[in-house]
Predict the structure of Putative serine palmitoyltransferase.
Amino acid sequence: MGLYDKFARLAREREQFQTSGINPFGTRIDEIYSATEGRIGDQHVILAGTNNYLGLTFNPQAIADGQAALAAQGTGTTGSRMANGSYGPHLALEQEIAAFFDRPTAIVFSTGYTANLGVISALADSSAVVLLDADSHASIYDACALGGAEIIRFRHNDAQDLERRMVRLGERARDAIIIVEGIYSMLGDVAPLAEIVDIKRRLGGYLIVDEAHSFGVLGEHGRGLAEAVGVEKDVDIIVGTFSKSLAAIGGFAVGGKDMEVLRYGSRPYIFTASPSPSSIASVRSSLRTIGQHPELREKLWHNANRLYQGLSELGYQLGAHISPVVPVIIGSKEEGLRFWRDLIAHGVYVNLVLPPAAPAGMTLLRCSVNAAHSDEQIDKIIQVFAQLKNF
C-alpha cells in the first residue's frame, strides 16, 4: 500500500476541481483591494466569504502599528512562549485581553486552532469526560483526541440531549467538561448557552465556550455570546482567535487565576513559535478599536439583516438564525460548484462548503458580511443571487 493511497478518492476529486475551472478549495485571490473587494483571475469581486467581521484588515492604525513593530522588533520571534517568544507586547496584549473580558488571566497562543488545542488537550486528558456539540470545530475534536479524553457528543444545539447525557454520567458529571461554540461557523447559529448554563448549575461540570466567530460580534462590548446572554460568570474558560474580528493571526484563552498553570502543561503553548511582533501590534490596535467603536457592530448587524432578508425574499433556503454568516443551502455538490463559479463570474466571492465540513450532509454557499460592506455592495450580492436563481 502506498503512503498516499488512502487519499485516492480525494486526489480524484481534487483533479476534477482543478481541470474544470477555479478550485473552490484553496481559491487563489490574486489581489486584495480592501476589506470588501479583491480580484480572482481577471474578475473583480466583492469579498462575501471571509471572517473579517468588523472589516479591520485595512484599518490604518492597525497597519501603522504593525509596520512600526515590524521595523522595531523584526519579522518574527523565532521561539515559543516558553523560550524566547514572549516579548513585552505579548504580555501587554494578555493584560489587555484579560481587562477586556474582566478576567484575571489571559494567555496568547499562535493561532485560534492552537488555542483550542492547547487549552483543551491539557485539561481533557485520559481521566476526563468531555461533552461536546456534535458540530464542534475540528480543533476541538483534535484537542480531545490529543488529550485522550472520553468524548460524549450531544446533538447540535440540543440542551435536552446534553442534560440526558449528563444525568447518565451520575457523579462523574460534576467533573465533566462541556464545550460549545458561540456562533457556529457554517450555519451561523448560536449555542443555547443560557440553557446549558442552567444544566451546569444543576448537575455540575466545567464550561468552555469557543467565541471565535462571536467575539467582536455579539454582546454590548463585543465579548461574545456569553456576554450577550448574561452568563459570563458561569463560563470557566473562553477561547478565541485573532483571525476574525481582530483581523490578524493568533489566538487566546481567558479564565480564572488557576488557568495560569496551563503555560506549563499546554504542549502547543510550549512548542509552537509565538505570533510575530507585527501581528501582536495590529491586534492590540484592533482590540482598542473594538472597545471604542461599537458602531462597527451595529453596521455589521445592519448588513447581516439586509443580506438575510434579501436572500430570504428571493426564496433561498437559509440557515435558521440571522447572523453575519448567511448560509445558502444548495441541493447537490454539483449544483453548488456550478453556482459558486457563476457567482464569481458575476463578481461575488463566497465560500463553497461540502460535507464533511458542512453539517448534516449539506452543500452550502456560505456568505459572510462585515462592517465595511456598503449598502451598494450588499445590494449587488442580492442582485447577483436574483440573477442566478433560475439560471
